[in-house]
Design goal:
Layout lengths: L1 H5 L3 H15 L9 H16 L4 H19 L4 H7 L6 H26 L5 H18 L19 H4 L2 H19 L5 H23 L11 E6 L4 H4 L5 H12 L7 E3 L14 H9 L5 E10 L2 E10 L4 E6 L13 H4 L18 E3 L7 E5 L18 E6 L8 H17 L3 E5 L4 E4 L5 E5 L5 E6 L8 H5 L2 H26 L1
Parallel strand pairs: 1-2, 2-3, 7-8, 8-9
Antiparallel strand pairs: 1-12, 3-4, 4-5, 6-7, 9-10, 10-11
Helix pairs in contact: 2-3, 2-4, 3-9, 4-6, 5-6, 6-7, 7-9, 7-17, 9-10, 9-15, 9-17
């Protein structure tokens, strides 16, 4: 098989690379077939062994990445079909365009690493460093979109995913890439190194989880998470606004009085401002000891924000978080004057970006880090450094993506933030997956996609600050440099041995 793949050329090589990329998506949630990623990356390495020119290497990796992103992000097209009409036709084009953009970030550094190395252990390590760096770049450049990072292939393996507490998800991905590429080398030393790396991650994770208290031991405040499951096609109808609010209040009143009720992103489908009487009315109406936390659009100083509001029992607004990571073409239109297109969501005006991670409080509750929608997918950007929270709250609305893999991936990606920070993560969706995890990423309860209801959660305690919480991506960059240096050293040694 190695010889056959290395011998492919032209369109056959590109088609094989794209097929390998599509196969790699099987490792991502909700399937979590990690061996599929290993097989796909081994195939990619063998295809690259048969390329001599940097241009061919670039196109091979581009085809792999394009297949990976086009298949893994198919659900993005769902938002276009929700709107319907002529907009629906733009869904597939948006997915393909996004896949091409993201593929470039992976193809360029890998093509460079390929040019500087020869087949063997040295190239395997260099390819891992380059592809890991590409993963980081596509998570940061041009607003960033770190969805389905390679490290997420372990999200169904509780022990291995714990390594993110030390090196973060980029570090887990880097180790995963090194293991997979080493398996492509017909050398017992490479296979031994790969086995030892996986064993080390398993051992650390088992040790960390072995010290964890039972999930039932949580005794913090009682929080009620409300998932109303309002279809996106009905959400912004003015005539239904009052009925939707009554539905949220009713679902939040089922059961013993909680310390706080939490509604999802833009649960209040009306534009609020500092003088809105509805803010006070909601605080006094919702049955809870401490108050209400809800998403709502907000107007301030002539600007519009996608916000999270913390409202106490007396109806006083105690805090507000404005979304900083806005969705291009969903919440604002980049280069609007040049492109001349409208955003997909309701309203003609763009949302303004907030200042970044923020911490909110309600009396009687531990302070929480507020995250709206896909703000939870950005590693290292979820905690306000100057005002650290004790738990994270992610409000979202995944009804845009229907019954696809997108909402499942969104929940699992948000769960990784708990492991990285040691903070419990509570997630509340209009529909999607509403649920909670502790600082080890262990699931405490959930409401499934497409259901309406409420979920009561006792807030678990925060864990001690993790190494990743202190160091961020420094261990990842150290790993990239180490793999690159080892790759260069092995490559030089291989050439020297060959000359003898």
């Amino acid at each position: 098989m190695r010889a056959r793949l290395a011998g492919l050329a032209g369109r056959k090589r590109l088609l094989a690379a794209a097929a390998a990329g599509i196969g790699a998506t099987l490792a991502m949630p909700p399937l979590g077939a990690t061996p599929a990623l290993a097989a796909s990356l081994v195939a990619l390495a063998w295809l690259l062994d048969g390329t001599g020119r940097s241009r061919d290497a670039f196109l091979t990796v581009f085809a792999f990445a394009f297949g990976f992103f086009a298949a893994g992000l198919y659900w993005v097209a769902g938002s276009f079909f929700v709107i319907g009409g002529a907009t629906a036709a733009g869904g597939p084009a948006a997915v393909l365009g996004l896949a091409a953009l993201l593929a470039f970030f992976l193809a360029f550094p890998v093509a460079l690493a390929h040019r500087l190395t020869q087949p063997g252990i040295g190239r395997a390590l260099a390819l891992a460093a380059a592809l890991g760096l590409g993963d980081w770049l596509r998570g940061h450049l041009l607003t960033g979109f770190p969805w389905n990072l390679f490290g997420y292939s372990w999200l169904h393996v509780p022990a291995v995913e714990q390594a993110a507490a030390i090196v973060g998800i980029y570090g887990v991905g880097l180790a995963t890439l090194a293991v997979c590429f080493l398996l492509s080398v017909p050398d017992r030393r490479a296979w031994t190194a790969a086995a030892l790396a996986v064993a080390a991650m398993f051992a650390y994770g088992e040790l960390r989880l072995g010290r964890a208290p039972p999930t039932e031991a949580a005794s913090g405040p009682l929080l009620r998470l409300v998932q109303p499951n309002i279809p996106q096609s009905e959400k912004w109808r003015r005539e239904d606004a009052a009925a939707h609010l009554r539905r949220l209040v009713r679902l939040g009143s089922a059961g013993p009085e909680p310390d706080a009720v939490i509604w999802p992103e833009t649960a209040v489908a009306r534009l609020l401002h500092s003088e809105s009487p509805l803010v006070e009315a909601l605080g006094r109406t919702v049955e809870s000891r401490r108050g209400l936390i809800s998403g709502a659009p907000w107007r301030q100083d002539g600007r519009y924000y996608n916000s999270i509001l913390a409202i106490d029992r007396e109806g006083r607004l105690l805090g507000r978080h404005d979304k900083a990571h806005l969705v291009p073409f969903g919440e604002y239109v980049p280069l609007r004057s040049l492109l001349g297109v409208a955003k997909l969501t309701v309203g003609g005006k763009d949302f303004a970006a907030g200042r970044g991670p923020s911490t909110l409080t309600l009396p009687g509750l531990p302070p929480f880090g507020a995250l709206i929608c896909f703000e939870a997918i950005f590693p290292g950007e979820t905690v306000a450094a100057d005002d650290p929270p004790e738990w994270l709250l992610n409000l979202t609305n995944d009804s845009w993506f229907g019954e696809t893999a997108g909402p499942h991936q969104h929940f699992e990606i948000a769960r990784m933030r708990a492991i990285e920070t040691g903070l419990p993560v509570l997630r509340v969706a209009n529909t999607g997956i509403t649920g909670a995890v502790d600082g080890y990423g262990r699931r405490l309860g959930r409401l499934e996609l497409g259901t309406a209801g409420s979920l009561d959660i006792r807030l678990p305690p925060q864990l001690a600050e993790t190494p990743y919480g202190r160091l961020g991506d420094l261990p990842f960059f150290a790993g990239v440099l180490l793999l690159a240096a080892l790759g260069a050293w092995r490559g030089r040694r291989g050439r020297t041995d060959g000359s003898r």
